[in-house]
TrEMBL record:
Species of the source: Patella caerulea
Protein family per UniProt: Belongs to the aldo/keto reductase family. Aldo/keto reductase 2 subfamily.
GO terms of molecular function: oxidoreductase activity
Pfam families referenced in this protein's UniProt entry, alphabetically: Aldo_ket_red
Name of the protein: NADP-dependent oxidoreductase domain-containing protein
Length: 370
């Protein structure tokens, strides 16, 4: 279908070009906790094929997803493809064997064993992007970074990245890689959406200064920004993951927010209202507008989207190219979704200029004399 296409960006400061929508595959394979909308192998392969028809070339998974089944499903599909057409990313951290205390974290031992198992499941001899799934307090970061660098030198991974880290942790990764003259981390996969913007305060500034690609996950905040949920109408079971989480307060998490937290969040509902307004004016879906806002952020290289069926995939892929949000529409969404700015950022960003064009925090202005 030649009329279907996507746009591409460079992955940070690498020469790799990736589609601006990345296919996240956490929905591939059944899970023990019974999450709704998981895809069996047949449907997963259909989603992969359709994503490729759109021009997508960037696929993300993790050893943890569905206990490794997500990687295995991708592997059986990848075996039938031309491997070098795709940028393949996976992650390492979580326990692989609950009865083996050393099968977890970011130790050299666990990373080396995990990459071998991931490569076997994926049926390939390398991954393009290998990511630490989160920070490991128990393992010195030096050990982790040296191990990732060794995997790059051995050819088993092409690039390294990280996910779910704080600003100071990311800066430590950057600094230590530079001090040890190691291959730099090229990406940060982080929760980012109109409903979750806190990384703009720290982490994304580190990314901008160092050419690190931001790869947002949960661009619709578990479906909250899809437009299908209405204020004051508690979702029923079967209405997506938020409906699933609404049945039990213990089920809510960052990727699948509980209804009780959403219901009283005025900022989110105001944001949804603005999304609905803009979507009607643009002739696009609410979800497409929410994803497009991310695509147009200068720090973002590719946005991770998940899909539970082909219709959902096709709809989300429609955010990739052929239209844009105007500068005014971007600003409207920025303003309505802006979280409270804490100290010291409020002092730093709410600035005034003196006669020498210096930026000064507002509380210093009264001391300026001509």
């Amino acid at each position: 279908m030649a009329e279907l296409k996507v746009d591409y960006n460079y992955l940070g400061r690498t020469g790799l070009q990736v589609s601006n929508l990345c296919l996240g595959t956490m929905t591939f394979g059944q899970t023990a906790v019974g999450l709704p909308g998981q895809c069996d192998e047949e449907l997963s392969h259909k989603i992969l094929n359709r994503y490729v028809e759109w021009g997508g070339n960037f696929i993300d998974t993790a050893d943890y997803y569905s206990g490794g089944l997500s990687e295995s499903i991708i592997g059986t599909w990848l075996k039938q493809q031309q491997r070098d057409r795709y940028i393949l990313a996976t992650k390492v951290f979580a326990w692989r064997q609950k009865d083996n205390i050393n099968r977890q974290g970011l130790t050299r031992r666990h990373i080396v064993q995990s990459i071998e198992e991931s490569l076997e499941r994926l049926q390939t001899d390398y991954v393009d992007l290998y990511q630490m799934h989160c920070w490991d307090n128990a393992t010195p970061i030096r050990e982790t970074l040296l191990t990732f660098n060794d995997l790059i030198r051995s050819g088993k991974i092409r690039h390294a990245g990280c996910s779910n880290v704080t600003g100071w942790q990311l800066q430590q990764i950057v600094d230590l890689n530079q001090q040890l003259d190691l291959n730099p981390f090229v990406s940060l996969q982080q929760q980012y959406s109109l409903a979750s913007r806190y990384d703009e305060f720290e982490s994304f500034n580190v990314c901008k200064l160092n050419g690190i690609a931001v790869l947002p996950w949960s661009p619709l905040k578990g479906g909250a920004l899809s437009g299908k949920y209405k204020r004051g109408q508690r979702p029923e079971l079967g209405t997506g993951r938020i409906g699933w989480a609404a049945q039990d307060a213990k089920r809510g998490n960052q990727a699948c927010p509980g209804w009780d937290k959403l219901e009283g969040n005025e900022r989110i509902w105001n944001t949804i209202g603005k999304l609905e307004e803009i979507s009607k004016a643009k002739g696009k879906s609410v979800a497409q507008v929410a994803i497009r806002w991310l695509i147009q952020k200068d720090v973002v290289s590719s946005v991770l989207i998940g899909a539970r069926n082909l219709d959902q995939l096709n709809s989300n892929m429609g955010a990739s190219s052929g239209w844009k949000l105007t500068k005014e529409e971007m600003q409207q969404l920025n303003d309505v979704s802006q979280p409270e700015i804490p100290y010291p950022y409020e002092n730093i960003w709410r600035v005034n200029k003196d006669k020498n064009n210096r930026f000064l925090p507002s509380y210093f202005v009264e001391d300026i004399v001509d």
